[in-house]
Amino acid sequence: MISREKHDRMANAIRFLSMDAVEKANSGHPGLPMGAADIATVLFTRFLSFDPKNPAWPNRDRFVLSAGHGSMLLYSLLYLTGYEDISIEEIKNFRQLGARTAGHPEYGHAAGIETTTGPLGQGIANAVGMAIAERKLRDEFGSDLMEHYTYVLAGDGCLMEGISQEAISLAGHLKLNKLIVFWDDNNISIDGPISIADSTDQHARFRASNWNTIAVDGHDPDAIAAAIEQAQKSDKPTMIACKTTIGFGAPNKAGTHKVHGSPLGAEEIAATRKALGWEAEAFVVPSDVLDAWRLAGLRSTKTRKDWEQRLDKSDAEKKAQFVRRFSGELEGRLSSAIDDYKKKLAETKPSPATRKASEDALEVINGVLAETIGGSADLTGSNNTKTSQTKSITPDDFSGRYIHWGVREHGMAAAMNGMALHGGVIPYSGGFLIFSDYCRPSIRLAALMGIRVIHVLTHDSIGLGEDGPTHQPVEHMAALRAIPNLLMFRPADATETAECWQLALESHNRPSGIALTRQNLMAVRTEYEEENLCARGAYDLISASDAKVTIFATGSEIEIAVKACQALTAKGISTRVVSVPCFELFAEQSEDYQQAIIGNSPVKIAVEAGIRQGWDHFIGSDGTFIGMSSFGASGPYKELYKHFGITPEAVVAAAEAKLS
Ligand SMILES: Cc1ncc(C[n+]2csc(CCOP(=O)(O)OP(=O)(O)O)c2C)c(N)n1
């Protein structure tokens, strides 16, 4: 048992490390770490099951600092509890280039950082995904191997962001009772008191979403502990509203927005040292306090060792599956299953919409991989993401592998990030490409973190027809291609769809989006090729020696390119077609390969039912682009293609005009 005096000194260690690091960096946010230090101290010294020496232990509790600007809280905790990655030097280097202690916590910079936070609201939604993964794996592997809590510290900002409502309502619906959120209820954000912008009754809000809520004094360790104990017994997720003072301990600035995001200044720091009775110099933690923290870091060693023994004693097959799934490796037989499927496609040459081709590919994939968890944001029948293996998950039954995310694209994408970060599962979504805008911040974070989530994005152009311009993506492929480290695929037929799925799954360290059509497309890969041709990002679909015209296209416009190529060839004009299922993979090929694919035809034409941006890399600024330069329109899709001039005839005419 930690005495109140010891608790206070341990919490003050967080406060001083935080204010001193912010002061040295001359930038950062001292207010939150100072205000939330008591909550964190109670959690990390009495409840959190974690092992700084084995930070990736799969059954550890997860702690998400959703209010990422308070990063010094997390870095202090990681240093104090003994994570090797965060030394005192790292604390001194807070916010410096190359330091693990970046301005906001970045996943991968240091062990113990469970997710990248900073964009407010993302962390709480990631945590919902972590809790989903935990619940799912508990069902699958049993509580011997998987049973842990997911804790979140969220601020007013997180709760004001719309994404938090998606996350909260989903968690309440799914009864994720091992999810415990601390709300740092300090009534302050950047502009001043919360009352200038918000009057939400947060308790009523959470309760309306099927949560349990508790209110405590966030500076009373025993009250915080009692609340956590109560939350752990809940059959619903719990929000613990912790009344805190931002910048606690700073005599003149505490409780004001002045302490939110600026260094306190030497004078105020000196006054705080006096007020809190802290004599140690900057970056020095008195040995009795550091010892107590290091002891807290050892608290769960036995729990972790016991867990390892249970894993060792598990049935060999179960253990192998568990270990493989947490390693992220795929089943070895996946590639042969996809290969067999490609052989079948070459024989049958089907011409489905690629959304249907994706379902068929998933039927193969989900039959081999038990870790894929599908879903859709209320568009299951349109996204074709449900297969025979993926029964729906319900609040009381997690034996399924399919999540009805509801109309919550943003929450879905952020929760999927949390699932991937948790490990043991591979999440894939379903949504309309147009609404990638609704989940773009989470897709961007997946790319920044380098995690494997896969977004199935259907209805990928004016080809969706009658729903009209509100639903027809125009700039979306270009906008998504602009995100670094995201693979955007736009396959042209069933074979390319299978290949793109394989590539997405094999991309362990980055997210993918697969843009798919609503309309049927003819088979263009009619011969079996063992090699995954999409892996190079762009390849010769129809080659021609000494081509006068090269047509580059993706997805549904490949069919147009092929027909134009046939017409031009019939006229004696040597023409090639290059399929470009993935810009990003193409950009990673050797210079020689890229040069060879781009080639030197006098006429280069790109066809894509989207905007031109990005295509000049292939066709040059003097190339011809046939696509969209305005919003779409409502109407039958074949008429739309004619209306917007995206036809084989238009391609032929453009080529002839250039050649004449
Ligand atoms: C999506 C998003 N919008 C804006 C910001 C900029 N920002 C950082 S902290 C903050 C205020 C947050 O207030 P609160 O959660 O109460 O934190 P506290 O003031 O208690 O530290 C804002 C607007 C952000 N990080 N993320």
From TrEMBL:
GO terms for biological process: pentose-phosphate shunt, non-oxidative branch; reductive pentose-phosphate cycle. Its EC number is 2.2.1.1. Its cofactor is Co(2+); Mg(2+); thiamine diphosphate; Ca(2+). Catalyzes the transfer of a two-carbon ketol group from a ketose donor to an aldose acceptor, via a covalent intermediate with the cofactor thiamine pyrophosphate. It catalyses: D-sedoheptulose 7-phosphate + D-glyceraldehyde 3-phosphate = aldehydo-D-ribose 5-phosphate + D-xylulose 5-phosphate. InterPro entries: THDP-binding, Transketo_C/PFOR_II, Transketolase-like_C_2, Transketolase-like_Pyr-bd, Transketolase_bac-like, Transketolase_BS, Transketolase_CS, Transketolase_fam. Pfam families: Transket_pyr, Transketolase_C_1, Transketolase_N. Residues 352-524 form the Transketolase-like pyrimidine-binding domain. Belongs to the transketolase family. Substrate binds at H29, H260, R355, S382, H459, D467, H471, R518. Homodimer. This is Transketolase. Mg(2+) binds at D156, N186, I188. GO terms for cellular component: cytosol. Thiamine diphosphate binds at H69, G118, P119, L120, G157, N186, H260, F435. The active site is at E409 (proton donor).
